[in-house]
TrEMBL record:
The keyword Signal applies. It comes from the Eukaryota. Keywords: Membrane, Signal, Transmembrane, Transmembrane helix. InterPro entries: FN3_dom (IPR003961), FN3_sf (IPR036116), Ig-like_fold (IPR013783), Interferon/interleukin_rcp_dom (IPR015373), Type-II_Cytokine-TF_Rcpt (IPR050650). Coiled coil: none annotated. PROSITE patterns: FN3. This is Fibronectin type-III domain-containing protein. Gene3D superfamilies: Immunoglobulins. Residues 24-115 form the Fibronectin type-III domain. Residues 1-18 form the signal peptide. Pfam families: Interfer-bind, Tissue_fac. It comes from Coilia grayii (Gray's grenadier anchovy). The chain crosses the membrane at residues 221-244.
Length: 283
């Protein structure tokens, strides 16, 4: 009896598992920015532990000959290294759980140069000068560090800027050079942000976050001349004071101004009051 049951159990288990088909992954979607392509999918029986395999082929091919992320136990697969920017592909996924394999999912069509999003510039740095702002921009790069302008030959920066006192008046400047000098008003605060776009590929990136900078004031010739004059006057004054001090030190009897000497000679309490205000060494 015991041996009969022991033989029966695996048969029952096999029967049950054969009837419970595991679902294929669904909702395939590609998260694609520049040349970083990550396939994501849903799997309805998420509470079961499952692993997956991805296949892809060029959309004109007939045979699914390429597999990637074989047996991965997460619901995503990075295909950046496999898919060429100018190719067009079909992708599908299969689940494996408790020794069973699901059917293949519906195929997803993915054409990188049409479907991928263009990332925003990697960086923008500003330097303010006398009535100028120098803008240094860094273009977006692909998954392996390749500049996106190598793939999109017409990639162009669009700089948007405005005087902070006149925010409604927005100026735009397009350039394919990464260094740009803007000639602006002196002593004014400007804010700016940058995006990149390609007309050939019908793509525009998001803008970078807004950054602000002050231009320096102009230094006109008159101001400089006045500055130099002021400097000369200060030096002359200091020299004069120094000369007077030295003269006073060498002849202490001549230090009292003539107007006070008049009081000293006239005598009286008023004279006494005035002379006592001098330091003792002068008496
Ligand atoms: C798997 O595919 C077969 C044949 O196309 C189909 O009969 C079956 O219902 C599918 N199973 C599931 C779980 O979708
Ligand atoms: C652009 O900005 C939107 C909204 O913040 C965001 O959802 C999207 O992912 C961004 N695109 C890129 C390519 O970074
Ligand atoms: C950069 O832009 C200028 C004009 O805006 C154009 O004449 C030139 O060919 C462009 N250079 C490249 C390398 O695309």
């Amino acid at each position: 009896m015991r041996t009969a049951l022991g033989l029966l159990w695996p048969a029952v288990f096999a029967l049950c598992s054969a009837s419970v088909w595991i679902q294929p992954p669904s909702l395939l979607r590609m998260e694609a920015i520049n040349t970083r392509y990550t396939l994501h999918w849903d799997w309805p029986s998420a509470h079961h532990h499952a692993c997956f395999t991805v296949q892809y082929m060029y959309s004109h091919e007939r045979v699914w000959s390429r597999s990637v992320c074989e047996g991965v136990c997460v619901q995503s697969c990075d295909l950046s290294a496999q898919l060429a920017f100018s190719g067009s592909y079909l992708l599908r996924v299969r689940a494996e759980s408790a020794g069973q394999r699901s059917n293949w999912s519906h195929a997803l069509k993915f054409t990188p140069d049409e479907d991928t999003l263009l990332g925003q510039p990697r960086g923008v740095s500003l330097r303010g000068g006398v009535a100028v702002v120098t803008v240094q921009m860094a273009e977006p790069v692909g998954h392996d560090g390749t500049p996106m302008s190598h793939l999109m030959k017409d990639l162009t920066y669009r700089l948007t800027y405005w005087d902070t006192h006149i925010p409604a008046q927005v100026h735009e400047k397009d350039t394919n050079l990464s260094l740009l000098t803007l000639h602006l008003k002196p002593d004014t605060e400007y804010c700016m942000r940058v995006c990149v776009f390609s007309r050939d590929y019908h793509k525009t990136s998001n803008y970078t976050h807004t950054q602000c900078i002050h231009t320096h004031g102009q230094r006109p010739v008159l101001q400089v001349t006045l500055g130099v004059c002021a400097g000369v006057c200060v030096v002359a004054l200091l020299t004069g004071i120094h000369y007077l001090r030295r003269k006073q030190d060498s002849s202490p009897h001549h230090h009292i101004p003539t107007i006070l000497q008049a009081y000293t000679t006239s005598g009286g309490s008023r004279t006494l009051h005035l002379t006592t205000t001098y330091p003792p060494s002068y008496r």
